[in-house]
Specification:
single chain, 5 strands
C-alpha cells in the first residue's frame, strides 16, 4: 500500500503545521484535499482521510474542544491503515495535544511514546522530530522538566541545522516554559524573547501572543512587575476575540499574580475571577488549580481567610481530580498491557509448538525470563512512581498531596479516639532575599537543611511535609496545643541557631510559625487554614517567632 499523491499529502502536512495560526484555513485545506482525492483508490483515499482527520482533530483542540477532538482522533486511530504509519503518527500527535490539555498527562505520555516508536519505523526524519516534540510535551506535563528539555533541545538542533526557523518557534516556547519551571529564569526569558521575535518576523500574531503570555510569568518571577503587567495586558487584549482560551486564561492568571504582588486587590480579584469563569466556560481544566491557588493567595494576603480557604479547597479538589483520574488511567493501562502480553505469550507458545520442540523450549525459557525481568522492572517502576508521587523531590519530605491524605486520616483518628491533633505552619523568613542575594542553588540548600532540621526535631509519628515554596507543615499527632507550641518554638530556635555561615558567609536563616489545634467540629482543611492565619500573624509581628490562638486576648 502506497501513500496518497505527494502533492495532496504535502498540503495536508502543511495544514497540520498551519492549524495553530490559521485554523479556518487548515480546515479548508483538509476539505479541498479530500475533494481532490475523491478519484483515488480505496487504500489511498483511506490514507488521505487519516491525515484530514488529524487536521480536524488538531483544529478542534486548538479551539478548546478537547474532548470532541480526543473522541474523533481515537475513533480515527482505531481504523487507520496499518500500512500508513505517517497517518497514525499525525493522529497520535494531535491526540497527545488534546490529552495534555485535558490534564490526562500520563495518557498523553503513553500516546507520545507510541508516536515516537511508530515514527522510527518509517525512517522519516521529519516525522521522528515531530513525534520527539510530542514526547517532550508529555514528559514536561508529567513534571519531568529536565526530560522534556532534553527532547526539545534535540528537536531544536534539527530545526536549526535544517534552517526551519518558523517550526522552531513552538519548541523555543516550550524550552522557555521548562527553564522557568527549573528556576533558570534568565535563560527562560532569553528563550521566550527569541521565540517571540521569530513569530513576529513571520507575522504569526497568535503564536506570539501565546509566547508572551508565558513570558509574562517569567517576568513576574523575576520581579519585573511593570513589564509583566504591560505584556500580559496586551496579550489579553489581543486574544480576547481570537478563540485562544488557553492563552487568555494563562495571561489572566499571571496578570492576577502580578496585581496581587503590586497590592492592587480589587483589580487582581476581578482578573482572577475572569480566569475562573473562562475556565468554567471551556475545557481548560489544566489551569483550574493555578487559578484557585492564586485567588487563595490573594484573599489570604488581604485577610479574607474564609474566601482563601474556599479557593484553597477548590485548588485541592482540582489537583485531586487530576490525580485520581490519572491514577485510574495508569491502573487501566497497566491491566491492558498485561492482557496484551499474555495474549502475545499464548500466541508465541502456539507458534513454537509447530516448530521443533527443543528449540521451542529454549525460546520459551528466554521469553519467560524476559517477562519476569519486565515484571520486576514494572514493579520497581510502580514503586518509584508511588514514592515520587508522595514525596517532595528537593527535600525528601512528604509533598502537599501526601500531607492532605495524612491530615485527613489523622483528623478522623483523633476525633474517634478523642485525642488532640495540632498543626504548625512554618515559613522561612525573607526567602526571596536569600535567593536574590545568594542565588537559587543556595536557596535550594537552605530548603534542604531546614527540612533536615525539622525532621530531626520531630518524632517518627509526626507528619512533616513541604507545603510549597518555602513553607513547611508539621502535624503533631496526639499532642496538645501547649506542647505543640513548645515543640515548634524549639524547632524555630534550632533553625535560628544553626551554623548557616558555613553554607555561605553572612547567611542567616530564621523561621516564622503559626500553630493551631483541631476543633471538635473542624476538619483537616480548617486546621491548615487556622495554622496559616497564625503564621501570617507571626510574619506581621516581626518574624522569627511562633503565634497561636491562646494569644488572642493578649494580642
Amino acid at each position: 500500500m502506497g501513500a496518497p499523491p505527494a502533492g495532496i499529502e504535502s498540503r495536508l502536512e502543511q495544514a497540520i503545521v498551519a492549524a495553530a495560526e490559521d485554523p479556518d484555513g487548515a480546515l479548508a485545506a483538509a476539505e479541498q484535499a479530500e475533494a481532490d482525492g475523491a478519484g483515488l483508490s480505496g487504500d489511498e483515499r483511506a490514507e488521505l482521510h487519516t491525515l484530514a482527520v488529524a487536521v480536524r482533530g488538531r483544529v478542534l483542540a486548538i479551539r478548546g474542544s478537547y474532548r470532541e477532538a480526543s473522541s474523533l482522533l481515537r475513533e480515527a486511530l482505531a481504523s487507520a491503515p496499518d500500512a500508513y504509519p505517517k497517518g497514525q503518527v499525525r493522529l497520535i500527535q494531535a491526540l497527545v495535544f488534546a490529552a495534555e490539555k485535558l490534564g490526562d498527562v500520563e495518557d498523553a505520555l503513553a500516546w507520545a511514546v507510541r508516536a515516537l516508536e511508530t515514527a522510527h519505523l518509517t525512517g522519516d526524519e521529519e516525522l521522528v522530530v515531530a513525534a520527539e516534540t510530542s514526547v517532550g510535551v508529555a514528559r514536561s506535563r508529567c513534571g519531568d522538566a529536565e526530560g522534556g528539555l532534553f527532547h526539545y533541545r534535540q528537536v531544536l538542533a534539527h530545526f536549526e541545522a535544517t534552517g526551519q526557523e518558523l517550526l522552531s518557534v513552538a519548541v523555543r516556547n516550550n524550552i522557555g516554559i521548562n527553564l522557568k519551571n527549573l528556576g533558570r529564569l534568565d535563560e527562560s526569558l532569553a528563550a521566550f524573547e527569541r521565540a517571540a521575535a521569530i513569530a513576529a518576523e513571520f507575522d504569526r500574531p497568535r503564536m506570539e501572543a501565546v509566547i508572551r503570555s508565558n513570558m509574562g510569568e517569567t517576568l513576574w518571577l523575576l520581579g519585573r512587575h511593570a513589564e509583566a503587567r504591560a505584556m500580559l495586558s496586551a496579550v489579553i487584549k489581543s486574544v480576547r476575540t481570537g478563540g485562544w482560551a488557553s492563552a487568555e486564561i494563562n495571561a489572566l492568571i499571571n496578570l492576577g499574580r502580578v496585581l496581587t504582588d503590586l497590592g492592587e486587590d480589587a483589580e487582581a480579584r476581578a482578573t482572577l475571577q475572569r480566569a475562573v469563569e473562562a475556565i468554567e466556560a471551556s475545557e481548560e481544566r489544566s489551569y483550574a488549580s493555578d487559578a484557585h491557588l492564586a485567588l487563595a493567595e490573594l484573599h489570604k494576603r488581604a485577610g479574607r481567610f474564609e474566601l482563601a480557604l474556599r479557593h484553597h479547597e477548590a485548588y485541592h479538589r482540582e489537583e485531586r481530580a487530576v490525580f485520581d483520574a490519572n491514577f485510574e488511567r495508569q491502573v487501566a493501562a497497566q491491566r491492558v498491557r498485561l492482557e496484551v502480553e499474555e495474549a502475545r505469550h499464548e500466541a508465541e507458545v502456539e507458534r513454537l509448538r509447530l516448530v521443533e520442540v527443543g528449540r521451542a523450549h529454549e525460546e520459551l525459557r528466554m521469553l519467560h525470563e524476559a517477562l519476569v525481568a519486565t515484571d520486576a522492572a514494572k514493579t520497581e517502576l510502580l514503586a518509584q512512581l508511588d514514592q515520587e508521587r508522595r514525596t517532595d523531590a528537593l527535600t525528601g519530605l512528604l509533598n502537599r498531596r501526601s500531607l492532605d491524605e495524612r491530615l485527613r486520616e489523622e483528623a478522623e483518628s483523633a476525633r474517634r479516639a478523642g485525642a488532640p491533633l495540632t498543626l504548625a505552619m512554618c515559613d522561612i523568613d525573607r526567602f526571596k532575599l536569600i535567593n536574590d542575594r545568594y542565588g537559587h542553588p543556595c536557596g535550594d540548600q537552605v530548603l534542604q537543611e531546614v527540612a533536615r532540621l525539622l525532621r530531626l526535631g520531630c518524632r517518627r509519628e509526626d507528619v512533616v511535609a513541604r507545603y510549597g515554596g518555602e513553607e513547611f507543615c508539621i502535624g503533631f499527632v496526639g499532642t496538645s496545643l501547649e506542647d505543640a507550641v513548645a515543640l515548634t518554638d524549639r524547632l524555630r530556635a534550632a533553625v535560628a541557631g544553626h551554623h548557616w555561615e558555613q553554607l555561605r558567609p553572612g547567611l542567616q536563616v530564621t523561621l516564622s510559625a503559626g500553630v493551631a489545634a483541631l476543633t471538635p467540629d473542624g476538619d483537616a482543611g480548617l486546621l491548615v487554614a487556622s495554622a496559616d492565619a497564625w503564621l501570617y500573624a507571626a510574619k506581621r509581628e516581626g518574624r522569627d517567632q511562633v503565634r497561636w490562638p491562646a494569644q488572642t486576648d493578649a494580642a
